[in-house]
Amino acid sequence: MNRKKKSSPKIPGNLSRSIIDILRKNSGKTYNYKQIASVLGVNDASSRNQIIKKLAQLAAKKEIKEIDRGKFTIEENKNYFTGVLDLTTKGYGYVMVEEFADDIFIAQKDLNAAFDGDTVEIYVYNRRRRKRSEGEITKIIKRKRVEFVGTLQQKKDFGFVVIDDKSMYTDFFVSGNKLNGAENGDKVVVEFEEWPEKADSPFGKITRVLGTPGEHHTEIHSILAQYGLPHEFPEEIENFANEIDTSINEEEINKRRDMRDVLTFTIDPKDAKDFDDALSFQKLENGNYEIGIHIADVSHYLQPGTILDDEAYDRATSVYLVDRVVPMLPEILSNNACSLRPKEEKFTFSAVFEIDDNARVVDQWFGRTVTYSDERFAYEEAQHIIETGTGTIPDDVSIRNHAYSVRGALVEAVVTLNRLAKKMRSRRMRDGAISFDKVEVKFNLNEENEPVGVFFKTAKDANKLIEEFMLLANKKVAEFIGKQSPKKTFVYRCHDEPDDQKLAALQTIVGRFGHKLNLKDRSTTTASLNNLLEDVKGRKEQNMVDTLAIRTMSKAYYGTENIGHYGLAFDYYTHFTSPIRRYPDVMVHRLLQHYLDGQKSASEEEYEQKCHHSSEMENLATNAERDSIKYMQVKFMQDHENEEFLGVISGVTEWGIFVEIVENKCEGMIRLRDMNDDHYEFNPDEFSVVGKKTGQSYTLGDEVYVKVKNADLIRRHLDFTLLGNRAEVEAS
What predicted TM-score, i.e. pTM, was given to this entire model? Predict the structure, then answer.
């Protein structure tokens, strides 16, 4: 009988790493080559010789230390760094650390239970000059989040939750006593508890059952839960807010500048419920104008150290989903006490300017006020006044469901403010501001929140009027504090210069459509960007070019170190005008009053931390808003599965083509594997895919006809079938 010879264990492929792992995990101890061979389970002469040679090499490179002849150890803190894990959908990740120019690559086997966004300690194995360095996660310092959204796959007395987030590389095991009433197929929120060393999956418990996948409220609540955003206020917060004294009392009025007799009005979207800004207008005897930008005095009601303030800080922003608003403040404040409703007195925080006929600021005043709003206009009503110069609002424009007349003083105010706003905007553009008037996609919803139509929202003169005066207030408040000496801690809205590589890539892409960018210096860059954005208006590539141009820009953020605002061409800028929906504006109000009262500079460290939190929450809210739009687009397209649509190729990748439908801006993908007429290959230099046999190409910006293949509500994904180029389809 032939016996198989038992094979000896082999030396590991990456011997350097294996040796470092042994020494790192046993720091403080020394090992000789025999002990390392024993740990590795090898005992042949060849393996021992390789270990001896490798130990000498690592010591020579100072990766390890020979503290006695033939005895090696590793420095405890050497090659350990801290950073944030960015996971890809393919299961591996990267960690950015300050000490390295490039991110550190982390293979999936080296994630060691870390999830996307976690702050981690990593051990870097090799610092390479030309190739990306590689590392292993050795400790999870802080979890970005511990709750995840997924679908329960229930077994007999346990279950697994498959996570929605594409960057999550594992499911969660949930024991039977932690299912919390969830049933097979339910969309749930699962909370991470632990990941035992020898377990294939982390252990969790279900904290909320969201409902049946695909149902409207289930999916909207899933989007909020995915980003850790709340969908309602705890009862104690509502009760606290309802107990606040919101009366306009004489004692408080006497502490403020009384501007109730000055003509004041609001201009907002017709469906707005909270009005956090108003404008006042009066002509002065010297021919100039006194214009007040009055903002709801949220900080009067929102006192530091209260549970309401803690809740507002945690939220940091209101979240605007397609079918609802998740407010930063309870309704008693957001829609009542702090909403500058018509025919009501309100406590406000104001920036009041004397402005000449050339829209130059001659004088300024900042402080707390009491105001009275004489009128409320929707943008459409204000636009009608601007376009006609009259105060007759027809019933098809009116938000009152009937025609009405506006008194002459209000008409004069709106028309004059529009004229001044245009001068301010023109000056801003000359100074190098960039005009991003990107078309917004909006949905007409029925009573069940089903999308029944799509419309595009564009900014007209009435919108731009409000925008210019809000920008003026934000800019002047920031200048007022920022230019004081000695320097005072303040909250700035910062926007850095665009990424040169992204600008160069944009230059290449728009060149395909006959457009040019001059990137010689800042002034030529901004001027040519504005020309580009103007040139593409109404053209098939508009939305794609607008989107790509925005992506070249740095992301705006809140910070205590002022670097100016590139996109607006302002040296100083802050957010002062929306404290109902943004916590940084509340901080700005508090700091402004603090300094108006002659107080010393606030703690920079404290406010920098608050700025960082606010920026992070803003990003989460933006992602949730985008996801809700994508969800509604998929929902809308479900009812149009057999229709043909004209679209523009908006992106090209190695696995497929993205197409944006012209008439509704819904974007979906044509997968290369579904293009059966040829074998298509990706050409990154030409932003195209090309058929090997026919040479047929589909390139960024091409017009094509598509049909909906699959509208997946749960994954919020659209798959298209390609019908062909526009010319070919229309000719056939």
Answer: 0.87
